[in-house]
Amino acid sequence: MDFSNKVALVTGAAVGIGRATALQLAERGADMILLDINEEKLNAVKAECAALGRDAQSFVCDISDEAKVNDVIATVMAHFGKIDILVNNAALWREFTPFTELSAEKWHLFFNINVFGTVYVTRAVLPAMLTQGFGRVINVASVAGVYGNGTMTAYSATKGAVISLTKALAKEVADKGVTVNAISPGSVSDSSDENVDAVTSSSLSYMGRTGSDRENANLICFLASEGAGYISGQNIQIDGCRKRL
Question: Could you read off the pLDDT of 190-241 as tens digits, one per residue?
Fold first, then answer.
């Protein structure tokens, strides 16, 4: 996969799948736009991409802030002139609370980041993709959005929404050179581990382990590539043959 002369934007780029994806895209030639709320770790990923010879721009950005998102996209469009690849990875998920105890405030927080944040970034980037007649949008969903996870109702609902958004938007832009797909990871190794190949044992998959950040990034990069030009509107589970849990 060669991403020379391509510009890619990754949200939630500071750790985990986002970081691994940013590094893989940069290794394969893409210039990078990196968004996250963790400034220290974001700057570290920017330095890693720059060390690969890429033009890397980073922005501390809460994607639930539409005005901030629009400002960032205007800035990078002025710098690069285009965005070819968008990876909507930023999300909130660590909340294990029974439905009857989950506050309305938490529901709003999950939807503002996981759904509206994805909408805001995509809406800001998509017009330029349509104008140039090329674009790749990859949304990071979850098996929770497919099966639903108990005590994770808000997260499951938002990831289900991201999957539906993916399928609906793909139909609007399929004839305009833009593909829209989602990946749904199962259990993934701890994002605090900087080893992109790290895995741990897991009873939630028949393979008996978590997926690595690199494995998830591999799938994202394929969907972003020229070779995936006839794939759109799909949600691809990457879950080690997941058990329905």
Answer: 877 789 999 999 999 999 999 999 999 999 999 999 999 999 999 999 999 9
Q: What's the pLDDT tens digit per position in 163-203? A: 999 999 999 999 999 999 999 999 998 877 789 999 999 99
Per the annotation, the verdict on 155 as an active-site residue is: yes
Measured CA to CA, the distance from residue 198 to residue 50 in angstroms comes to 24
Per-residue H/E/C for 91-154: CCCCCCCCHHHCCHHHHHHHHHHHHHHHHHHHHHHHHHHHHHCCEEEEEECCCHHHHCCCCCHH
Query: 3-state class of 159 per DSSP?
Result: helix
Rounded to whole angstroms, how far apart are CA atoms 198 and 214?
9
Please answer whether residues 53 and 28 qualify as being in contact, where contact means their C-beta atoms are separated by less than 8 angstroms. no
Pairing assessment for the beta strands 56-60 and 178-185 based on DSSP bridges: unpaired
From the candidates 120, 147, 155, 230, which is the catalytic residue? 155
Answer for the pair 162, 118: CB distance below 8 angstroms, yes or no: yes
Distance between terminal CA atoms of the chain?
34
